[in-house]
Design goal:
It is built from four helices and four strands, in the order E-H-E-H-E-H-E-H. It is an alpha/beta fold. It has one domain: 3-Layer(aba) Sandwich (Rossmann fold), CATH 3.40.50. The chain has a four-stranded parallel β-sheet, with helices on both faces. Strand 2, helix 2 and strand 3 form a beta-alpha-beta unit. The longest helix is centred in the last third of the chain and has 19 residues.
Length: 101
Amino acid sequence: MTSKIINWGIIGAGKIATKFATDLNTVPNCNFYAIASRTIEKADSFKKLHHANVAYGSYAELIADNNIDAIYIATPHSFHNAHTALCLNHKNLYYAKNHSQ
């Protein structure tokens, strides 16, 4: 039986994201697929350093990528609520669009 590879996205490109990406690259069946930062330059640098597939200059772009299976929010705690809501709202819109009668 072949196990599914889980494509991960990370929101935020700071110290916690570095720790998570480093650890994620050691986990079987996980792929560090995408990074998003407030600037494409920082995201692209992070992508190259940690071997991600894609870099985004906005969190919304990462959330909209349907190749991502799971998202880790690595921004400061004061932004977790807003970034979680952004993820959940996208998922609700995606589900409604693709499962309407």
